[in-house]
């Protein structure tokens, strides 16, 4: 457990709380930072950002310099991060799902959230079914969700109702296989890719980890099958990213796979780094792809054959001066880049990734495990133990 010492008097801390919260209302006072699952950027306004965290959804209107909660109307509790999606065609429209399985929509940039009317109840032990929400480019009403037990679902009415898009017969997604990732080709809304969540079913043939549909989910074909020794193995597909032209990249079991024909055929990238968590292709440059993980952020300009470091402990992607932060997601707008991390919050760069600094003001997403107080003069000091033993935190 890491300890962060806050040189602040208990009276001053309570004074801050009283100033920002009313009777019966709690407000976060830090430590700021924490586990950030995803970060989204509004295309029409690059300084507007949204993040999904262990503590819910936050918004920034100053390119990540400061953050504020954006949860008004969402009533479900936090489980492992809210699935969050931004409409590519209407920048103030977003979708989210809570731990009770309710789906929400906002049309005012997350100032207010309303339930769409659709509910996909959690499984036994409270396991949420809605794992990811994905916008369909070119439509202001169509979204997809991938689920733990119900495959791929599509809505054509802004999330009010959904129907299954799992194929049929020999051209279908396998029943009983949990999914966790779906991506829609920005150049062809009928071209979908869906990836499985890790599991091991026992004896039987290996199951594809990555599936493709060229008819918006009416039929599916397995396109990547990992060799698991014939025990019904399939991998964990945590990220799929369409790039320049017909390039597509996917993170499957921590390895980058690349397709040069819009997802038809795939091969592992020979220079793929280990312990990979996210992969993001550059839509403007051929063979350009970023890989994030426990090593920080790396970049390849040759389709994944070789990689060089972009962000690590040496140029500021560290919460404690030595250990590199684990990357969850990257967004870029000109010289301004933003990295979401696991346990270490948000990092910003204003020079194309040459140097990085933490930017977590107002981002209350730390995983506090214990509190203590040390008597001191003129005021006591508060100790907060937080973070994860396997990832660096401040």
Provide the descriptors you would attach to this structure in a database record.
3% helix; 4-stranded antiparallel sheet; mainly beta; 37 strands; 394 residues; 1 helix
Task: Please sum up the structure shown.
By secondary structure, the protein is mainly beta. The protein has one helix at 10-20, and strands spanning 2-6, 33-34, 36-42, 45-53, 56-60, 68-69, 84-86, 94-97, 102-106, 114-119, 130-135, 143-147, 152-155, 163-164, 167-168, 171-172, 179-185, 188-196, 199-200, 210-213, 221-224, 233-234, 237-242, 248-252, 255-259, 267-268, 276-281, 289-293, 296-300, 308-311, 326-333, 336-342, 346-349, 357-358, 364-365, 368-374, 381-386. The strands form eleven sheets. Strands 3-4-5-6 form a four-stranded antiparallel β-sheet, with no helix packed on it. It has a four-stranded antiparallel β-sheet with strand order 7-8-9-10, with no helix packed on it. Strands 11-12-13-14 form a four-stranded antiparallel β-sheet, with no helix packed on it.
Explain what the structure shows.
Helix content is 3%, strand content 43%. The chain is mainly beta and 394 residues long. A four-stranded antiparallel beta sheet has the order 3-4-5-6, with no helix packed on it. A hairpin with a 4-residue loop joins strand 8 (94-97) and strand 9 (102-106). The protein is globular, with a radius of gyration of 21 Å. Residues 1-19 have low confidence and may be disordered.
């Amino acid at each position: 457990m890491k300890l962060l010492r806050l040189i602040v008097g208990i009276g001053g801390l309570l004074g801050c709380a009283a100033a920002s919260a009313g009777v019966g209302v709690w407000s976060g006072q830090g430590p700021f930072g924490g586990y950030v699952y995803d970060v989204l950027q509004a295309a029409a306004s690059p300084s507007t950002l949204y993040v999904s965290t262990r503590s819910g959804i936050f918004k920034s209107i100053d390119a990540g310099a400061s953050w504020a909660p954006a949860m008004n109307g969402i009533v479900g509790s936090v489980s492992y991060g809210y699935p969050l999606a931004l409409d590519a065609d209407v920048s103030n429209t977003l979708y989210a799902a809570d731990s009770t399985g309710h789906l929400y929509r906002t049309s005012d940039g997350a100032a207010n959230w309303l339930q769409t009317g659709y509910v996909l109840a959690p499984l036994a032990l409270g396991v949420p079914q809605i794992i990811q929400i994905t916008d369909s480019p070119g439509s202001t009403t169509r979204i997809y969700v991938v689920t733990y037990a119900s495959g791929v679902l599509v809505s054509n009415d802004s999330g009010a109702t959904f129907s299954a898009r799992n194929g049929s017969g020999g051209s279908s997604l396998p029943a009983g296989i949990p999914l966790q990732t779906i991506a829609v080709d920005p150049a062809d809304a009928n071209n979908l890719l869906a990836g499985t969540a890790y599991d091991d079913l026992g004896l039987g043939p290996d199951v594809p980890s990555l599936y493709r549909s060229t008819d918006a989910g009416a039929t599916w074909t397995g396109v990547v099958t990992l060799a698991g020794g014939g025990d019904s193995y399939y991998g964990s597909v945590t990220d799929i990213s369409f790039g320049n032209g017909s390039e597509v990249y996917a993170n499957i079991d921590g390895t980058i796979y690349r397709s040069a024909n819009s997802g038809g055929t795939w091969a592992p990238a020979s220079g793929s780094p280990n312990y990979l968590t996210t992969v993001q292709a550059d839509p403007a440059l051929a063979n350009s792809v970023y890989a994030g993980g426990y090593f920080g952020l790396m970049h390849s300009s040759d389709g994944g054959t070789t990689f060089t470091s972009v962000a690590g402990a040496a140029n500021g992607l560290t919460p404690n001066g030595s250990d590199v932060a684990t990357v969850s997601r990257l967004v870029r707008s000109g010289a301004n880049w933003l990295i979401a991390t696991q346990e270490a919050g948000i990092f910003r760069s204003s020079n194309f990734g040459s140097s990085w600094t933490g930017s977590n003001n107002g981002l209350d997403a730390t995983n506090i495990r214990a509190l203590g107080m040390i008597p001191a003069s003129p005021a006591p000091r508060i100790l907060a133990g937080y973070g994860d033993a396997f990832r660096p935190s401040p």
